[in-house]
Amino acid sequence: MNENDILTNSFFVEYDEGRRHLCVYTVHNGIRADVPIRLRMDSLLGKGKEHAAQWFGESVFLLIPSLRRELYDLDKDDSA
Fold first, then answer.
1. If DSSP codes are grouped into helix, strand and coil, which group holds residue 59?
2. pTM
3. How far apart are CA 35 and CA 78, in angstroms?
4. Is-contact 55 47, C-beta < 8 A?
5. In this predicted model, what pLDDT tens digit does every residue of 5-41 receive, in sequence order?
């Protein structure tokens, strides 16, 4: 799997109550990925509600190419 299979500006988020997972699916060209990024509810609850929300937000930000560059200084083209 390469970076372009993961990084995107489009997402589908759903909560799987049975597994207690928050599932983040990337969407490319209108097609939702078959396999989600799974965040275990127990892990999120262990962080406390404020930190869990921040952690979730940052996790999504890191999947968006322009935010990776602008907010986190990642994936910048060093040739410029």
1. helix
2. 0.80
3. 32
4. yes
5. 789 999 999 999 999 999 999 999 999 999 999 999 9
